[in-house]
């Protein structure tokens, strides 16, 4: 079953409480989302392999550790996922960035791909799929299927706020995926908003409310 990890670092929890507040404007919201994304990037890259390197400090030579150079790709689900990209690439500048756009078919209510641009070597990369809100899980599940169809083998889903319904959907559709979230909220309301949530993440980030 897909493993769920709640990233309970105090800074993440504090900043998440700030962006949940309805009086936070787009400027503050953006800055905080970027900071939270950066902190989450720190947490989800703990497993990255290191190699020993010989370096010269101003004092002596030394054997120290650096990243082995595992290939990563950060893939944002449009549009709200864009808000988390900067935080991730600031910490992982060598990561490639991909984008997946999905809309909900009004008749079937199923997500349909309208855009995707991914690194060519997806099968060789570990994919960090980002979207702030895991609500019903429909978009995230479709994005994971798309990535798997392109050959992705290692995918981590990173969200700010998850609803139990979304987590269950991913665990059912993609039991091999690790899910990282800053919070597991109560559930969804009648409009598929996460409760207590933070509202529409895309609108709040882009100021389009
Ligand atoms: N998408 C959002 O932006 N917010 C929610 O609460 C659910 C889906």
From TrEMBL:
Keyword S-adenosyl-L-methionine: no
Residue positions binding 5-phospho-alpha-D-ribose 1-diphosphate: 79, 104, 131-139, 200
Catalytic activity, reaction form: UMP + diphosphate = 5-phospho-alpha-D-ribose 1-diphosphate + uracil
Chain positions recorded as uracil binding sites: 194, 199-201
Record's cofactor remark: Binds 1 Mg(2+) ion per subunit. The magnesium is bound as Mg-PRPP.
Pfam families in the cross-refs: UPRTase (PF14681)
Record GO biological process: UMP salvage; uracil salvage
Activity control, per UniProt: Allosterically activated by GTP.
This protein's UniProt keywords: Allosteric enzyme, Glycosyltransferase, GTP-binding, Magnesium, Nucleotide-binding, Transferase
Top-level lineage group: Bacteria
Residue span, Phosphoribosyltransferase domain: 7-208
InterPro entries the record matches: PRTase-like, PRTase_dom, Upp_B, UPRT, UPRTase/APRTase
Cofactor: Mg(2+)
Listed NCBIfam families: PRK00129.1 (NF001097), upp (TIGR01091)
Family in the record: Belongs to the UPRTase family.
Function: Catalyzes the conversion of uracil and 5-phospho-alpha-D-ribose 1-diphosphate (PRPP) to UMP and diphosphate.
PANTHER family membership: ADENINE PHOSPHORIBOSYLTRANSFERASE, URACIL PHOSPHORIBOSYLTRANSFERASE, CHLOROPLASTIC
Name of this chain's protein: Uracil phosphoribosyltransferase
Organism: Heliorestis convoluta
């Amino acid at each position: 079953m897909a493993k769920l990890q709640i990233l309970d670092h105090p800074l993440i929890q504090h900043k998440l409480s700030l962006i949940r507040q309805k009086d936070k404007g787009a400027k503050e919201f953006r800055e905080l989302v970027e900071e939270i994304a950066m902190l989450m990037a720190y947490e989800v890259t703990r497993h990255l392999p290191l190699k020993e390197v010989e370096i010269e400090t101003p004092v002596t030579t030394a054997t120290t550790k650096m990243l082995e150079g595992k290939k990563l790709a950060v893939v944002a689900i449009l549009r709200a996922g864009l808000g988390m990209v900067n935080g991730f690439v600031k910490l992982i500048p060598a990561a490639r960035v991909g984008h997946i756009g999905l809309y909900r078919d009004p008749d079937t209510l199923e997500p349909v791909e309208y855009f995707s641009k991914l690194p060519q070597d997806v099968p060789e990369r570990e994919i960090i799929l980002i979207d702030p809100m895991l609500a019903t899980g429909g978009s995230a599940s479709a994005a994971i299927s798309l990535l798997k169809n392109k050959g992705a083998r290692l995918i981590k889903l990173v969200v700010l706020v998850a609803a139990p319904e979304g987590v269950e959907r991913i665990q059912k559709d993609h039991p091999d995926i690790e899910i990282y979230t800053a919070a597991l909220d109560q559930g969804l309301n009648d409009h598929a908003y996460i409760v207590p949530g933070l509202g529409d993440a895309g609108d709040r980030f882009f100021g389009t409310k």
